[in-house]
Batch of 3 targets.
Target 1
Amino acid sequence: MTSEMNMEEKKMIKATINGIEVEVAEGGSILDAARTVQIKIPTLCKHPDLDATGACGICVVRNKANGRMLRSCCTPLENGMDLLSEDAEIVEVRKTVLDLLLSRHPNECLTCARNQNCELQTLCADFGVRRETLPNIVPDLPKDDSTKCIVLDPRKCINCGRCVDVCQNMQDVWALSFLNRGIDTRMAPAGDISLAESPCVNCGQCSAHCPTGAIVEYEETDVVWEKLHDPETYCVAQIAPAVRVAIGEAFGQPIGTNMEGKMYAALRRMGFNAVFDTNFGADFTIMEESAEFVKRFTKGEGELPLITTCCPSWVDFMEKYHSDMIPHFSTCKSPHEMLGALAKTYYADKMGVDPKKIYMVSIMPCTAKKYEIRRCNDMSSSGCQDVDVSLTTREIARMFKQSSIDFVNIPDGEADSILGDYTGGGVIFGATGGVMEAALRNAVWMVTGKVPEKPEFEAVRGLEGIKECKIDLAGKEVRIAVAHGLKHVEEVLDKVRAAKTSGGELPYHFIEVMACPGGCVGGGGQPYGVTNELRSKRAAGLYKCDTECAQRTSSENAHVQKVYAEFLGEPLSEKAHHLLHTHYSTKRAYQR
Amino acid sequence: MTRLTPNDLSALRDQLRAAEAKTFVSVGMSTCGIAAGATPVFKTLQELVAARNLPGVVVRQVGCAGMCSREPLVEVRVPGQPSVMYGNVNPELAEKIIESHLSGGVPVEECRIPSLEEMAVFPGDPEPDSVNRPLQTRIVMRNCGLINPDSMEEYIARDGYQALAKVVSGMSQDDVVSELEKSGLRGRGGAGFPTFMKWKFTKASKGDTHYIICNGDEGDPGAYMDRGILEADPHSVLEGLIIGGYVIGAEKGIFYIRAEYPLAVERIEKAIKQARAAGLLGKNILGTEFSFDCEVRLGAGAFVCGEETALIASVEGRRGTPRSRPPYPSQKGLWDKPTMINNVETLANVAQIILRGGDWFAKVGEGKSKGTKVFAVTGKVKYAGLMEIPMGTKLRDIVMKDGGGTSTGKPLKAIQTGGPAGGLIPESLLDTPVTYENLQQLGSMMGSGGMIVMDETDDAVELARFYLGFCVDESCGKCAPCRLGGRQMLTLLNKIADGKGTKADLEEVKKLARAMRTASLCGLGQAAPNPVMSALRYFEDEFTKRLVG
């Protein structure tokens, strides 16, 4: 950054809101300025992750100089402005906008997935909207549950545009768009095809950003209840890393609180026969992936850079939009799939349970995991489907609430010792850069025979969209990139393509990609209200958990080593390949 | 044509003028004329002139002269004689014109109408005495109906591209801006923003390149002056665009024209090609260092794409929806570069201001509204058409003089100006002089210059319903107040019009109007309640008498 730009950045704008002086850097909105002095102007369409579009009109404030109203979300503060955030007319206008939105919104709050967690509902409550003054004009539009991951309910859509912005600009997927105009304007896949036929990668960021119940996860709690009460079924669960630091939010706990002990205990009380931890699967993923990396990097067997594949949305995105990169993809399955395969082979054998009777429920921060469990035949490597159902954090939180469990106060439980123990390397998977950091720790161990003295690789942490760094691996430079949020993928891959085309030096040897901004802590299935602050706090919960682990490097996981010794042989063995690896193929972005 | 220099241009003009001593039989062949049947008239005239072997008689097409209700128009201009205009000409009358006027020298009185010279003062004409002064002053429409729009030579013969030559060979960018400032020209597309400021701001914006866009996405119901100008005198708009490009430092200009204007598109494209071939467009314009080129982009017919930011989105290939301003297009416009968007009529004024000076232009008009405005006068008016009126003219004069009063002979009730963003002005207020400020004060606006005349049988509620319905259809759907407010207001208005509304419904209409005006994102939504509110302002009894309970 040049000094001139720094100078420009320092230019401050001063104005007055409700008689209180405010100051923000030039370009800052009235809304931002107001928040610095604890004036919380109500908003609806504006999301902190996204640029303001000005779609709803709730956030209007008055410019006292000319009496005109301005949208505080998208109007930059100007020097000398004298603004008023409320008067009788402003309140009337905001209420009228809510009246209008309600007139085109079904009156179904009690049966809506977002009941008590809906931004429109909250605003209507705050503004004391007591009657429907306008004729109800909700169109008769069908739900789209074609993906079995995400459900679109266009009747509940208020056209705020967040999902479209997320899908097109944050995620670069371009599945969602607006169709038609005027009163017929609606959010839908371009061309009015089903979501399953669209380029959607099921990341669920649209659902995480939707202010209402127009986009929600595909709910599968009923089938889990059935299985739990079926005496013929042996129910097992596994908990993904990022879930434990987010689920507390659904129970009023401080953001980032690690609730894993409560989850283990609650799942047992619900009737699960065994409770595993996906962190254990993550340690396996690291064993396999770092072996894959070291093989490609030191022995030159296979293409570099190696690209991580834990994220099913990323895999789907790559198969649809970047399939020329397939040779670079790690063949490792994601942690919950590895654990599923081991549960229905090694564990079943050990416990003498018929694998066909085992019902594996994986609890994930993710909507795309619902897709991944049926992605291809490799996901049934145990002989039956390795993971039977995948629930999001939001779904399991509801199940806990349905279970008469005092979740916050229940004494901490333990995971099963087989397939339950984990290292710090496993738990940091849930934050962007975590897979990379864990793999690097293990690669050091593989190359040098010793775990790294300082296990922290700070350069791959944090919320910068693309993180690049160079690591010394036993005297050899390893160039690394970590990208999260799919919009950042192309820039990284294009550098690789350019180097391959020109025959120049590779920009990277190892790349981690997570589809969701912040990685799994910001996953599409996590509790609502995601912001960067929240992503950071959840990630901090994981890094805290990492430092509290006795072992920080996956190879140190004694149970992992035991499974290799007793069952798999060694990383990348034939058996490991059969159970823990997969393959990829080019897909059409549009399925029709 | 070889590439011209400023000197060549003047020489060519003089040469073309000298060659004009012929008898011209001109047929108005714009969309309006063609629709009214000008093609068979033109054909008849051509055939008869050929058959009679009339020496020195040239039959040619010209653009729209603005006298729409009297199309097809035929003008006979014999050297040394005043021009004679004929209206509502059919092939039989065309034959009479040949027989009587061209062969016998006796004009055909049965279809004779006032000539353009009798109707309007033209730039360079001696100022007539105030008693006999025609109502119109034609600056923008100086060539409309007088030249063949497909002929660049005819434009050049009437001082075409002289302003461009003057600018590129001796005026700085600031000189041009200062001339515009003196002229007091304001945007003719609706908002009336001072044109010099737009040019100055865009010129001052930093960027590696700048763009200029001519907004030809005319869409107000009943307004068609931009089409009229583009079809009748495309080079005048192009010249304004090139000068604008010079001033703001653009290399590229765009004509954004709605696809429903195929003839306008055809003529402007032809004009661009001709100008390029003559070195008036493209690299090193008129032999100077200045290079600038332009292209035509078609609008798909959404009214909202006339709004600057939606227009830019549309040019970029995105969904045509507005975004909030600032940043203004002058700061961040097409492809995020500083962009100046001017309306067709605005640009058509530029060359005359440069040639004759800002002070000359500022002599026409009143108060802060300088120059002229082209109105499209339609509805229940005897002579519908385009009328270029000096600012400050009384509204009544427009309707009663050149408009000829109501077409039904019934008393005048009101006029509607400003299109869907404007409002009703009752007969009692028609002595108001036309200015941006006056119209706004009356609860209407200048808009693009649509003027719909209503007689006493017309219903204010119906008119309000029509305009609101237009805005509801044309809402882009992006912002809630416009998307939903318009629809709900229309539902209530329909209820009232059908005699089923209550007092509470009328109050709800007013409440929705307040919310739409204050909380809609763009001008379309903010102004959509205007026709309803102005109908209520002047004719509330027509609403209340239909209420029940």
Note: Residues 220 and 257 of chain A are 26 Å apart (CA to CA).
Target 2
Amino acid sequence: MSTNSYAVRDSMTMLRRNLKHAQRYPSMTISVVAMPILMLLLFVYVFGGALGGGISIPGVGGGGDRGDYTNYVTPGILLMAITSGAVSTAVSVCSDMTEGIINRFRTMAISRASVLVGHVIGNVVQTIISLVLVVGVALAVGFRPNAGVIEWLAAIGLLVFLAFALAWISAAIGLGSDSVETASNAPMPLTFLPFLGSAVVTPDSMPAGIRWFAEYQPFTPMNETLRGLMLGTEIGNDAWIALAWLAGLSVLGYLWAKASFNKDAKR
Amino acid sequence: MTATTQPAGASKGINALGLRKSYGEKVVLDGVDLQVAPGTIFALLGPNGAGKTTSVQILSTLISADEGQATVAGHSLEQDPDAVRSEIGVTGQFAAVDGLLTAEENLELIADLLHLDKAEGKRRAAELLERFELTDVAQKSASNFSGGMRRKLDLAMTLVGKPSIIFLDEPTTGLDPRSRRTMWQMIRDLVAGGTTIFLTTQYLEEADQLADRIAVLDGGKIVAEGTADELKRRIPGGYIKLRFDDARHLDAAAHTLSQATRNDEDLTLQIPSDGSIPALRQVLDGLERSGIHAEALTVHTPDLDDVFLALTGQGRKTATTDSATAVKETQR
């Protein structure tokens, strides 16, 4: 029996399994969705007034108000929704590996990658739900994008691509963690990366060292591309740089996760 | 078992030669040879840490051996692991069920992964739930199951694919006596249907009850192999034990029966013996003649415990205090 011909079917079976898990134990999903929504409200209502007037917002300039800042920060909050969502892949993969059932899967003639693909796609689905809710709340608190259908589709494509890339990296981290606690803490730096970019404030307001990091780290071009698509600000080369990062991160995450999974069963 | 058509691998069994595995400095398997005839129960017996689970993990394609080769159901582990996987079923010490799914969903999950069509999967799941008396709890999630129920569901999941060779890694560890007996009966039924069983256990009684052939594994090596009777014959474990009321009688008896070893603490004498009637009569006559009064007499015939303890380098002392390997004696 050829394993590869069943790869898609096995992956779908595993996806159904993971979605059932998420549905039955929704606490993880809820906390993953709640985090970015709280962040959004925090930045809009607590910091929004001060930051809106304090930084030079692209397309607005200095002296903006809370509404301008809501437009500025929402794309970054969407990236944070993805990074915090990705953490749950590490947790679910790691806790799954401690279950005897994974050893059963390993002794069956199924596509080996399907176990991980199920987790990754399951996580992407969960993240999409979280993104829809965050966008809904953002619109309710004054987010006013001017994107057309094409721009929305491109923005959605970018967000899903990022969710996919980070889910693979997070899956690899989950496979490499000895305990669920490690798995939930190890990807934490990921959730902070957007802050050290253009998510919350413009990098030109930062001191030299951090500004340099902010300009070259992967989340900044993604953030700028997203902002450009949704609000019509300048994108330039950022779209290509973002796509290159996403492709690179996906391949890295996939190969890393696959290699970890194919190592001997740990006990 | 309603095995209608046996897969081609059913007539091939298991053959392993010179399996070695070490984790860093620690050698877990040190050249293990195994032959399991098709349609039989083979028991791999050994103390904790002997390498039983590692052997199962290697033969079931979970991990690879550092050296040596093996064929399972006629397929090479190294060259064609997927062919091996489609012939085997594995039920481990830790039940391999998905706790968040119901019993029925667990079985259907396996059916899906075996690429059975939906109707066939549902039919097979219902049949197995019925056979393992799990129909009433089919809609309950497996995390609420007792140890015995989880183990039953685990075995049921293993059987969805009708494997020709089943690995059972300590299938009754942690089960109560009733569940253990139920599990034994299931294992016997499977073999009656033509399945080959590779069983690991640390319970001697289990190997004695079930296995056609037994290999004793200790420190990563097979130290003995044969049928239960062959193994028992290999070691001189039989003796007569006499218990006395007081030290005076014990002294007198020890004097009369010179080949006996005495134990002053519990006032007993142990006389090596094959347990036959003439041998017994000889001991009793000797006591009678000397007017010694013995309180009780027990005859111990060699059993697998003796084999196990003699071969795995554990002293008898630990055995008599350890209830798990308690020496069985026949009270007369």
Note: Chain A touches chain B through 25 residues (CB under 8 Å).
Target 3
Amino acid sequence: MPRVPVASEDERKFIVDGIQSDFRLDGRTSRMYRPVLLATDVVNTANGSCLLKLGGTIVMAGVTFEFTRTSQESPNEGRIEATVDGSGCHSLRIFGRQRHLFTKQISRSLNYILNNPKCFDREQLCVVKGHHCWLVHVDISVLRYEGNLYDACSFAMKAALSETKVPSLQVTHDEETSEVTVDVCDDPFQFGLLNVSNLPVFISVSQVSGIHIVDTTLKEDSVTLARITYGVKDNGNIVYMSKDGGGSLDLLNLRSMSKVASDIGPQMNSLLLDKIHLSKAKQPLWGHVNENLLFDDINFV
Amino acid sequence: MPDSLSSGQQHMSLVVPGTILTNDTSNFMRGHGTYLDSTKTKLKSSVAGCILKVDRLLCVEPKHMRYIGEVGHVIIGRILKVDQTRWIVDTNSRLDSYLPLAAVVLPGGEHRRRIDDDERNMRQYLKEGDLVSAEIQIVHQDGTLSLQTRNLRYGKLSEGILVQVKSSLVKKTKNHFHSLPCGATVIRGCNGYIWICPPTAATASNEQEHHTGGYVRSIETISLDERKTITRLSNCIQILNRYSIPIYDTSIMNIYSASLDYEINQSIEPKIMDILAKQTLATQENIGTYE
């Protein structure tokens, strides 16, 4: 959690008082998210992409495929890895090594849920068992940072993966020579889709003077002492947990924070799913190339 | 950001980097934000912004830029460091600004020479992270600003919300301290920092006795109603900034009264923001105050 001086002592008191009366700096209640806006299929060169705005935080996710050999440990599984890059972001006011560590922490969390077989089925990325598989890169870049990067990154990743077009391949197996040939299909409109229905989203719950709030902004981060990021599935099950910040938490707090996360998790999951459907319907309207459209909120859902 | 709201004429003068401003280089002079291309036959824009023409001089004023100070401007700054005899202040300008110890009124309003004790106690008055309202006293050769808070109107800011907007949007007027009829005080810093706080006696009346320079901390907590007004104003000013509408007391009040139809937490939703911005522009044009 970046700790930059964004508020004076009196400002902090104002923020804490507001949270205690369930009225935050922008009028939200403790369990409200900022508006989520997303547009899918925004990058021509990626198999799947998504631009997501969570209030002022803007992230862009792109999914690309690479053809590679399967690993020895898991011969019938493909590989997937997520990276978060914040190097081009001016509003992320952490510099040097700290910035790298901050974004790396997020990509590590994302990789954790991607490599959990209960969350993401990597067998769908296998092309020829024991031979070839896809290596999927999920590249997330931070375009603007105004708090709660964890959740924004996981939303963007889920949206981008659910929209990803897997290139279709023709696998021919020669019985006599036992040679396997893989050909890329000529038709660009023939593609498969990934199953991401089990993929959790991150819900970060912060504790500010005994009250648990979600989706903290940059200013609210300055009064947050402890934060837990939960990975919550659409049925409310928690599959991932990581603590952030120096403050301590007791068991009672932990329990009520998990309760908050598993309450909100299904809501955010279904909201995201709705938005992805809407965005997919909107895609043919504007197709590829026109990046200018991204500056107008009308093109987001 | 949404530019579709601005009128047609403004669209004509908006340029992006690389736009050819003129082919007639002999009759125009190269101003700020422009450059001659390698063939020396075309004058091009080097920033994104509005064209400004003064006789033969051609300039481009960037839309997003760091604040360029002028003497007498009211600004809001955040203390970055406490130095030997001065505070180093962030004022959204290219270089850090300075607030010398000699340029503040000491608590109690004593007028005397600053002694070593004062230097030692500097952190008690203002420490890192604190916000101050101040006036620009000197603009140095390199653009560094020297500030002063000699008037008791200026000084440390207590509880409230700071909103950061584009400095070009803050309309320069006679008064930058407004106590709005909706029950809040707004200080529009020319550097794009806008401070919203509960109404204080200091700005409500002109009597000097009420001014404390902010060094006396009040222990009263802010009521929920006041907090709601402040939050609504802060959301409204952020909408004005997003839609590039000039920010001054009338425009703030216009958008505030338009936003009363909605809940406060609705005014961060893009659709509502769009409606509010359009309503504000419409009322401004009706009254004829929009420039």
Note: Residues 18-285 of chain A form a domain with the Ribosomal Protein S5; domain 2 fold (CATH 3.30.230.70).
